[in-house]
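Lecture 7, part 2: worked example. A protein chain together with flavin mononucleotide.
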Amino acid sequence: MPGILAISSSPRRGGNSELALRSFCRAAEEKEIPVEMIRLHELNLQPCHACDRCAKSGICAIQDQMQTLYKKVIAATALVLATPIYFGSLSAQLKLFIDRFQCWWQAKYRLKTPFVSPEEGKAGFIICTGALQKPEYGDNIAAIGKVFFHNLNYKSGGILCLQGFDQKGAINDDPVALIAAYNAGVEFIDSFIL
Ligand SMILES: Cc1cc2nc3c(=O)[nH]c(=O)nc-3n(C[C@H](O)[C@H](O)[C@H](O)COP(=O)(O)O)c2cc1C
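Predicted complex, written out as structure tokens:
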């Protein structure tokens, strides 16, 4: 799918980060850019075993649904990650997903055969939502996203951190936040996809 792969990492289906992700992706759909949304929490995914088998092959040895996700990531032009802020960091689901790209790190740095080359111009973006209005709670997520996209040879479009939303779906009562997510999508698409 040459388009956007949208990764929702909250355990809450229809939670705040997922609603913000949907608003972001609406900007793509309006330009007829295909979007596929994946909910990590609904998949059977194991954390990285650090077995190092990928050091020789660049391929992850764990046979779970991550194998399908690798193919989807390769096929997509852009990767948009959404997470709730948990203790000033990512959801466990998103951390697990990121760690499973250790095989891509091995492929790039040890085997010198990256899955994605910088010339392909692929790009990534992160959206996070949190309960408290503390800008610093987004800092760790921004830093992890930067490292992740750099290791994948993706350009980083940055992060949108929307705060002040705790109850599931609370962000729906704040059109300004959802418009901010939509506008971030417009800017990302203009800068990295069109
Ligand atoms: C385990 C846990 C840890 C949390 N830690 C934080 C936190 O450090 N800072 C914050 O602002 N909100 C925190 N929250 C609140 C969520 O980030 C907030 O409800 C967010 O909007 C949830 O997004 P979701 O609906 O997409 O899951 C935490 C919630 C949970 C369940």
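Residues 129 and 162 are 5 Å apart (CA to CA). DSSP finds seven helices and five strands in the chain. Keep this in mind for problem set question 3.
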